[in-house]
Amino acid sequence: MVISDSPNAAKAHLLKHRLMGVAVLTAVLSACASDSAPEDTGNEFGTAPQLVEPSGALLPTVNPAKAIGWAEGTAPEPAPGLQVNAFARDLEHPRWLLVLPNGDVLVAETNAPQGGAGVSGIKGWIASKMMSYAGAGVASPDRITLLRDADGDGHAEIRSTLVEGLNSPFGMAVVGGFLYVANAAELVRFPYQVGDTRIDAQAEPIAPLPGKELNHHWTKNLLPSVDGQTLYVAVGSNSNIAENGFDAEHHRAAILAIDTASGDTSVFASGLRNPVGMAWEPVSGALWTVVNERDELGDQLVPDYLTEVEQGAFYGWPYSYWGNNVDQRVAPQKPELVAQARTPDYALGAHTASLGLAFYTHSAIPALAGSAVIGQHGSWNRAQPSGYKVIAVNFDDGKPMGAPMDLLSGFLNSEGEAQGRPVGVAVNGQGAILVADDVGNIIWRVAAER
Question: Ramachandran region of residue 387, left (φ > 0), alpha (ψ -120 to 50) or beta?
Answer without folding.
Answer: left
